[in-house]
Amino acid sequence: MAFELPATSLELRSRVTDGQLELSLVPVALRAPADNEVVVRIEASPINPSDLGLLIGPADISAAVVSGTAASPVVTAPIPAAFMRAMAPRLNESMPVGNEGAGTVVAAGSAAQGLLGKKVAAIGGAMYSQYRIVKAADCLPLPEGATSADGASCFVNPLTALSMVEVMRDEGHTALVHTAAASNLGQMLNRICLSDGVPLVCIVRSEEQAALLRGQGAQYVVDSSAASFRDDLEAALIATGATIAFDAIGGGKLAGQILTAMEVAANKTAKVYSRYGSSTHKQVYIYGGLDMRPTELNRGFGMAWSVGGWLLTPFLVKIGAARAQGLRERVARELKTTFASHYTREISLAEALQPDIINAYNRRATGEKYLINPHKGA
Amino acid sequence: MAFELPATSLELRSRVTDGQLELSLVPVALRAPADNEVVVRIEASPINPSDLGLLIGPADISAAVVSGTAASPVVTAPIPAAFMRAMAPRLNESMPVGNEGAGTVVAAGSAAQGLLGKKVAAIGGAMYSQYRIVKAADCLPLPEGATSADGASCFVNPLTALSMVEVMRDEGHTALVHTAAASNLGQMLNRICLSDGVPLVCIVRSEEQAALLRGQGAQYVVDSSAASFRDDLEAALIATGATIAFDAIGGGKLAGQILTAMEVAANKTAKVYSRYGSSTHKQVYIYGGLDMRPTELNRGFGMAWSVGGWLLTPFLVKIGAARAQGLRERVARELKTTFASHYTREISLAEALQPDIINAYNRRATGEKYLINPHKGA
User: In what residue span(s) does the Enoyl reductase (ER) domain sit (chains A, B) (predicted)?
Assistant: First the structure.
C-alpha cells in the first residue's frame, strides 16, 4: 500500500488532578494493526453531550488558563470542591475522549484488507485522535457517496433515538415524550416517530425551536418557556396518551412536571377517586444532564411512577446482538435522511482546547453541535 | 343470635371543599349482611401514614376550627392554594377513612355463620366506623387469645414489611436499606430480616432510635443526624452490598444520599473508571411521604439508578393470590411476635377530630402510632 503510517498520533486527553481539570494533546506511538484490525484516519468526530461529562465534567471553564504552545496547548480549569468526591475514581488518570467518529481506513491487518481505503464509522472512545486502531468487526462501512462528516454521528444519536422507541414498546407504552426535542437527536426521533406512526410530544425551550420542529412535521410541540406550558403539556398528553418520557435536561422541575401532567391526563379517564393517584405507571428516563442542577420531584403524581437513569450501551446489551444489529442496519440505510446530522462548526484538536470554543460547545445549546476534525490544520 | 344491629353506624368522613378540609362524624344506615358477608364491630383501627394522606392531606391543622357538638364535632382547616390542583379528583366527595382494623363479628350472612362471634381483622377502607360490613372471604380470623388491638395492624405494616423482602429478592438484590427504620413497620422489618438472614441497613433520625433498634438486634444502624452519617452509610453499604432501599421519608435529599452512598460502595470494587458511573443498578422505592418537601436528586450516582413510588396493593396483585396468601398466613402465625405493634394512645372517633390530637398523630413521629377505637366513650 502507498500510505505510510506516521510514528505517532495526536490524542486529546482529559485529566483530573486535585481540584483541577487539565486538557492536552498527547502524541501516542502508533503501532501496526493486528490481523483483524484496521487503522482509521479519523476525519470527523462529534462533541456529544455524552462526551462532555468525561471531557469537561464540572470544571469551571470561565476560569480556564492556557499554557503550552499554539500547536500543543494545555488548558487547566478549577473544579469546585463539592464535585471532587465524585471525581475520585478518575483522579490523575489521563483519559482519551470521543465516543464515536468516522474516517478512512489507511491500514488494515491481513484479515481486514477488504476495508482498506473505505470510509467507516466506529464507536468505542478515544476518537478525538488523528488515528485510531479499531477491530474490523466494529466498523460500520458508510454507504457510497457518504463523507466522514455524514458518518461521524452514526451511533450515539441514531441508536439512542431508535432505542427510545424500542423501550417504549418493550415497556408497554404507546406514545413518547422527549425533552430538548429540537436537538439533532430530537429531530432524528421526530423523523423516526413520523415514519413509524408513533405519537411524539416534543418539549422545547423556545418558540423558535417549536417552529423548527413544526416545520419538520411534528404534531405535538410544547414550549416550556410559554406561560401556558402546563396546560399545553396536559393537552398533548391527553391527546397522545404518552406515559413514558426521555429527558435530556435532568435538572430542575421538568421531569416532575412531566409526571404531574401525565397524572392529570390519566385521571381524566379515571372513574373513581384513588387516594394514591392513578394506577397508570408513569416513567421518565433521564439520559442527559443539560441542566446540571438537582432533579426536583414534588411527588404530586400519585405512587405509580419511576424516574431513572438511562444509558444506550446497557440497553443494547440487554436486547441482544440480533436486535441491536437490526437497529445499526437501519441507521446505515437511512444515514442521509432519517439520521442526518447538522454541525455548527468544524474545529481542530487545538481549537477544541481554546477556552472561548470550549465555552461554546460546553453550553450544550439545543441544535448546536461541534465536529472535531483531528487533521484540520495539521 | 342475641345481638341486635343498631340502625346506624358512625363513620369518620373527610371532605375537601374549595380551599378547605372538613372532618366530621356521619351516622350511616346499617343494612343486614348479604349471604357471604359479616358485620364487624370495629374495635381497633390504626392511624397509619398511609391513612393520613386521605384523612388530612395538605390541610393546615394549626389553623383548624371546631364546630358542632362534643359528641359530633366538625373540624375545618384551610388547604393552601398550591395543593388544590392535586385535590381536584376528590373535591366535594365525603370520603370514609381507615385502611384496616379489627373487631368482633356481630352478624353474619347465611354462608358466613362460622365467623359469628369471632375476632377478625380486615382491610378495605372505611374502618374508622363503628360497624363495617365485610366479605367473609376478606376477613382474617385472629389467633386464639388475640385482642382486636393485637389484630388492628394485621395488613398494612406486616404485608408491607414482608413485601419489601420479596421485592428485594424478585429484583435480584441481596440486602436492604430502610429509612424511618425505628417505626413500627421498621421494627417488624428488622425482626423479619433477622429471622430470614437478610442484611438490613436501618437509617434513623436520632441516637435514641438507633439505640432502640440496636437493642432489638439490628446490626447496621446509621443515624442521619450524626456528622458522620455519609461515612457511616457508605461503610454499612460496603459491608452489606445493599443496592435497594425502601424510603418512607420521600422529601429532601435522603433518597439521593442513599444512591450516592450505594454508588461509592459499588465503585470500591470497580476495576476501571467508567465515565457513566458503576453499572450496578441502584434502586430507591419511596413508599411514604413523612417529609412532604420535594425529593431532591443531585444525580451524582452514575446512570444505573431508579427512584420510584411503591404501593403495597399493586405489588400483591402482581405476585398473585397464592404468594399473597402465603404472606398473610405468616402474619397470622407470628402476630404476637414478629408482627406485634405498639400504640401511643387509643382514641375515640370524637377525639380523632380534636385539633390537638390531630396535630399529635399528624406529626408522623417515628415510633408514635394512634389507635382509633370507634366504641370508646360511645
Answer: 19-372
